[in-house]
């Protein structure tokens, strides 16, 4: 069985619990949960910060495009278009295995889920 390369694409600030966010969600909790799952499955998993990907940081772009699976946390509605742009970049090079995650605890994100389908 070959090893899958998993990447969590996240907004940089969502990993820092000390930064007040416009939404009640912490990417750190998501990362810990994902890390536990992939560790149990013995898959390597890395974080790629959206800001570094936006500025075409070479290592981040390579991790993102070479990952077998990318998990994207699109809870922050202000950054959602940027996440979807990068998702489109992966699709344009036939990387179709992405998992889009969103916290839907309010009406705003509930309607956003319909937009993402």
UniProtKB/TrEMBL annotation:
This is Uncharacterized protein. It comes from Rotaria magnacalcarata.
């Amino acid at each position: 069985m070959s090893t899958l390369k998993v990447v969590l694409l996240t907004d940089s600030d969502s990993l820092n619990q000390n930064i007040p966010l416009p939404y009640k969600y912490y990417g750190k909790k998501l990362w810990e949960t994902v890390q536990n799952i992939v560790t149990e499955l013995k898959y390597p998993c890395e974080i790629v910060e959206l800001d570094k990907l936006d500025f075409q940081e070479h290592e981040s772009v390579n991790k993102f495009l070479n990952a077998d699976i990318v998990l994207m946390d699109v809870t922050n509605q202000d950054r959602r278009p940027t996440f979807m742009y990068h998702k489109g970049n992966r699709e344009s090079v036939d990387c179709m295995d992405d998992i889009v995650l969103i916290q839907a605890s309010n009406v705003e994100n509930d309607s956003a889920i319909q937009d993402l389908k």
